[in-house]
Give the backbone structure.
Amino acid sequence: MIPFKPVTKRDGGRLRRYYQTCKYELCEYSLGTKLMWRDVLHPAWAEVAGCLVIRNTHNGRWVFDYPVPGPEGDEDAALAAIEADCLAQGVLPAITVVPEQKAPVLLSRYPYVHVSDIRTWRDYLYYREDLAAFAGRRYSGQRNHIKKFRKQWPDAAFRRLTAEDREAVDRFWLDYAAEFPKGDNAKAQDELRYAKRMLTLLDKPWFIAGGMFDGEKLIALSLAERCGETLIIHIEKALYSYTGVYPTLVQAFVTAFGEGCRFVNREDDAADRGLRTSKLQYGPAKLAPKYCFEPQNELLRHVPAIPELRTERLTLSALTEADIPAYNALVLDADRNRWWGYDDVGGLGGPVEERSFFEVARRDFANRLAVNFAVRLDGKLIGEAVLYNFDCRGSAELGCRIDRAYDGFGYGTEAFAAAAEWGLYQVHLSRVVAKCYKENAASYRMLSSCMRRSGEDETFFYFEKLV
């Protein structure tokens, strides 16, 4: 499993190693977003295969950012680690806020996937030179507002904010609270609280902050972060009593700190009508999509119920209530199962009850994580074949075990071959894999008879069967 750690201020330098050169152009791929919204998204991070991997929480489930590679980063290996981590947790992976340039990678990676592109998630990206100059007819409104502001407050000046400006920032928040038009909006209040917390980080080198001053009075401020060729503006706040201060702040900030950037990202509009109207008036170059990829496996698409499979001597079908005594005996035969590779009892996470293993099998199929076939001889359960570890990329793992009383008659090979054929030609998998302990000569012979050996490590021999 990936050793994730919660994102904190102490991690800022490590995360910025990846974000400072990131070319994804989206606000989520920045340290500022992770810190500002950590109470909401609960981001956790890890370094995998030279990539930064971020896991967030959204609507009660884990979702992952697309991996951000370092100089020697392997995105494919990082994605595989995410998928393996989710399989170990018994959940399907979800890769969210995927930048447009990475969408083809995931479309080719997953045979079955649900893709969404939610309008309210999209970031507003502007050409830097547009916001720095406000040239042309479409920006006449912004130019007029700036002229009015300069006429009324001719001595107002913009400069960089540093840790020495904390008193001015504190006074600004008091003045802003007196004018704040959304004081009864809980979401807006949360955003304001997070913004205040971010402005305590003026001593950090990760962010760029600037303010407009009327004399000694701070009347507008902004905080941003450079990520690749994009200047991501996390915070823009101004006193509403200073008419025209917002476009004046935007122009001054981009002029002062946007050199070398192609785009300015002013983030999404959070479905706020006022924000959307304002951000559209600034003439975005594009509304950058953030795709959500939710891979599915073949069970979800093709298997509404566990079927019945027939071989020359056996029947493979769903477990039933009547199978519980025989199934428990099979699962609890510790000596027989020393080669099974999974601790059924430990996997329960609680005491063993009569229906425990039956309910696990039923729940796994209900969640389309696995198919447990009862292997039957003349109607009697003599073993099971389990197709599991569906990786959402066309592959699944197959295991088979037979009661000791029926060992040595080839039933395991017969059941295994039937389940593998069903997976490849009825469930539309492209690959079925299996493994056996190196000491397990019987399993090695069985797997060798119906699959191709594909590798080994210190513990296992690995096999595969392809379409």
